[in-house]
Write a structure and sequence with these properties.
PyrdxlP-dep_Trfase_major; decarboxylase; Aspartate Aminotransferase, domain 2; PyrdxlP-dep_Trfase; single chain; globular; alpha/beta; lyase; four-stranded antiparallel β-sheet
Length: 472
């Protein structure tokens, strides 16, 4: 054995203790860590782009990393990171994630680990939390991009089945042009269309309701009637990124009865609202969708990277993702045969952090996070609306606040970008730029399990400070 490997094996308890100390230092300082570190701190230090010839051992490597790069690590795990719908890591999920790397299981039905059984149990518990029926099966993937990819890949195969074509075997050319319809397709879905060979140009944007991100179902019906001969996937939004709006799923399901299409629901963060009796009505009808995307590293607050794809068409899914090899077990139609149900042959034990979090906090814990975040988002929106210098661009439907700068002359987009740079430099709260109804906007998404009233107060104070600096 290499002498440094031998030394690290002997020093493993010390290495783990030291890693634990660094983690505790990070978590203890999270409240004061900038949500967006200075750009200079986000750069690699001289010499670190080169491969070391001899190495220095784990303890020295840990210390070098922390001393040189800790200032460049964002406080995105903390309570005032309102960008990109990023959750944090609850204590239970963090502990589980450490174990995932330690026990290093390949989470397949391989008859040599409990991992697949725990993943199946986690999926069943998540279905219970979100009130999804037994007819759905699910599996863990890396994020919403891959969950959308899987859902549409199954949809592509299903469209072929309706025409007697095995797309997985013959290729997409045997099926021909597929149209994908949406009013608000997330960029991850557009990326998935590219990877699937359906193509970005297959996406047809359907009109939205006035001053809304919600699909106009009458416009959709007119388009479906005019293109009834085309294989069709409809992408529904259950929580849009700008305003957390939900498409009218019952109306879409009624259209599906007349114009058979594959209905995929992107509920990356909005689906978690189903755990709350106050907001579950927003998901009415999603139990009849063909496929669903839900992220765990958003509102369920487990570490990156973790998402779940659900479908009611497991046999079709297996046609797409089966992996046949002499050294592997043959595909079997069972919901935990993950080797043959997901894009990956090698899969990290992603289910354990969510399994641990559900066991630790139960239905009531997850519901409390959702309801507290929504309450705080609405309070945040009300305060912005009542303040000088800001205006809401849309009602706060759930946990996303979409707003703009008030009384701005000149180039509003440049001014918006300058304001966000000031906010980043101030380091207290992180928001992201967007566009809504054709105008430059700012969005704040609240999903972190630690966010409380004081964080809203601190965020508002920082924004007022930066708004004043903007005028100087």
């Amino acid at each position: 054995m290499h002498p440094l490997l031998q030394q690290d094996l002997e020093d493993l308890p010390s290495i783990l203790d030291h890693t634990n100390q660094l983690a505790q230092v990070f978590l203890a300082g999270l409240d004061g860590r900038p949500v967006c570190p200075p750009i200079a701190e986000q750069q690699l230090k001289a010499g670190d782009e080169q491969l070391s010839a001899e190495g220095c051992g784990a303890l020295a490597a840990l210390d070098s990393f922390w001393q040189r790069y800790a200032p460049g690590i964002s406080g995105s795990a903390g309570p005032r990171y309102f960008g990109f719908v990023t959750g944090g890591s609850t204590p239970a999920s963090l502990a589980a994630d450490w174990l995932v790397s330690t026990i290093d299981q390949n989470s397949l039905l391989s008859n040599d680990t409990i991992a697949a059984a725990i993943e199946l149990a986690t999926i069943e518990q998540l279905k219970a939390l979100l009130h999804l029926p037994a007819s759905f099966t699910g599996s863990f993937v890396s994020g919403a991009t891959m969950a959308n990819f899987v859902g549409m890949a199954i949809g592509r195969q299903w469209l072929g089945q309706q025409r007697g074509i095995d797309v997985a075997q013959l290729g997409l050319s045997a099926l021909g042009h597929v149209q994908v319809l949406s009013a608000n397709a997330h960029s991850s879905s557009v990326k998935a269309l590219s990877m699937l060979g359906i193509g970005r140009d297959a996406l047809k944007s359907i009109a939205r309701l006035v001053d809304s991100e919600v699909i106009d179902t009458e416009a959709l019906e007119r388009h479906l009637a005019a293109t009834s001969d085309l294989p069709t996937i409809v992408l529904a939004s259950a929580g849009t990124v700008n305003t957390a709006s939900y498409d009218d799923l019952p109306a879409l399901l009624a259209l599906r009865e007349r114009y058979p299409f594959w209905l995929h629901v992107d509920a990356a963060f909005g689906g978690i609202a189903a755990c709350s009796p106050s907001y579950s009505h927003l998901l009415e009808g999603w139990q009849f969708a063909d496929s669903i995307t839900v992220d765990a590293h958003k509102w369920l607050n487990v570490p990156y990277d973790s998402a779940i794809q659900f479908t009611r068409h497991m046999s079709t899914q297996m046609q797409v993702f089966q992996n046949n090899s002499a050294y592997l077990e043959a595909p079997s139609l069972r919901p935990d045969d993950y080797l043959h149900l997901t894009p990956e042959n090698s899969r990290r034990f992603r289910a354990l952090p969510l399994w641990m979090a559900l066991k630790a906090y139960g239905r009531s814990g997850m519901q409390e996070i959702v309801e507290r975040n929504v309450m705080l988002a609405r309070r945040f929106g009300d305060s912005l609306a009542a303040s000088n210098g800001f205006r809401l661009l849309a009602p706060v439907n759930l946990n996303v606040v979409c707003f703009a700068l008030e009384d701005i002359s000149g180039d509003t987009e440049a001014t918006r970008n300058h304001f966000i740079r000031l906010l980043d430099l101030h380091g207290v709260v992180r928001c992201t730029p967007t566009h809504f109804n054709g105008q430059p906007a700012i969005r704040a998404a609240l999903v972190n399990w630690m966010t409380e009233d004081r964080d809203i107060a601190l965020a508002l104070a920082s924004m007022q400070t930066c708004r004043t600096l903007l005028e100087e």
